[in-house]
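Notes, p. 3: input format for complexes.
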Amino acid sequence: MSSIVQRLRTEMLARDTGKDVLLQGADYRTLREYNHLLVLNSVRLQGPAARVALAQQTGLSKTTVSSIIDQLLQDSLVTEGDFIDAPATGGRRPILVHFNEDLGLVLGIEVGYTSLTLITTNLTGQVKSVWNEPFDFTTPPHTCLAMLSAAIRIFMARSELQWDHILGIGVGISAPIDSRTRSILFPLGEHSWEGIDIAATLSQQFEVPVYVDNNANLAAVSEGRYGVGVPFSDFVYITINQGIGCGLIRNQQIYRGAMGAAGEIGHLQLLDDGPLCICGKRGCLETLANNSAIIADASLGKSLARVAPKARVSPQLADTEDLDINDVIHAAEAGDMSARLALQQAGRYIGAAVAMMINILNPEVVILEGATVRTGRYLLEAVQEESARHTLPVIWPATKMITGQLGDLAVALGAATVVIDAAFALTPSAPLADYP
Ligand SMILES: [Zn+2]
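Output follows (436 residues plus zinc ion):
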């Protein structure tokens, strides 16, 4: 096993369980180690740089940076190669220091309502392998976790991966996660997840660090790190599928709130007497504008009946039992009035909720993701019009609304990214002033 992957894993597990473990070799809790991470993270996040540039980026002296780089080279955490193209101003040309992104791999997983996505990435989040399979998240928790473990084992075997090379596992789940207990805050189906620490269960089985978070939070991390969110440090990310979720990024970090339930936009109650929601209330946004609601509206012609009481739903939508959201989107684009009105109605509900988020949080940008915003225009246009109508006039012109870029891999990639960030987290617990 790569000794450095092992060392990072031990450190992550120790920090995760709150155990006070003194590691062999480097002690991550001193300023010396903090400085190592400062230099390493500079190369990891800002790209290859010469030693002198790293001294400028970190504020450390050139001598300190040089001795740190020597140590990082010994640990294989960085490599040196490639000269800078610019002509040197005398003396030898500086060599670039690179983060060794292929030192280990990370497993990123999205647990959706009906499907699993498993990916591996290297340590800069480059996707190396992808696997999808059907899943049923409404089964009892222990069945769910057993199916998830089995899928992980099969994925590892199929991809010919060794656990020795895996730094950790990140899991994104389509439900709010209690950040204190790492369990699901309320059930997706009829089964309670209370007391089930998903991360600990998987970590014990596979003997690697495991991080669990809400799917929208992790997709927001992805878009912020690799996608359309890169230029922004404060944004709201909203995913519209079977669930309607939201990730809040404040100062480039996930904002979770006291319990982990911050940003639950899908459970904003818009109608007192609306349909019953999985959270126990009635008329939540999710029940009014998720994919099932749109499909039902389009095929039953509910919005159509309000506009044109005598109009009939077209046979292609009315008589199909296994209609999916893409059928509705394509029908709308092809001119079907019932499909178009259903998407517009859902868009207006979402727009009203988005305006509340904008008024409260004043983000730089709102990123929207989901089949209904990725393809077709009707839902997105309605979201824009309705949120413009409800947002404070002084804020609206300064708020951008864009669609996500990373699509189906966003959650799994965010899950992998959280593991990588945990491995290189700058969290010294010793006072920094004690460095000689
Ligand atoms: Zn609800």
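Residues 18-28, 428-436 have pLDDT under 50 and may be disordered.
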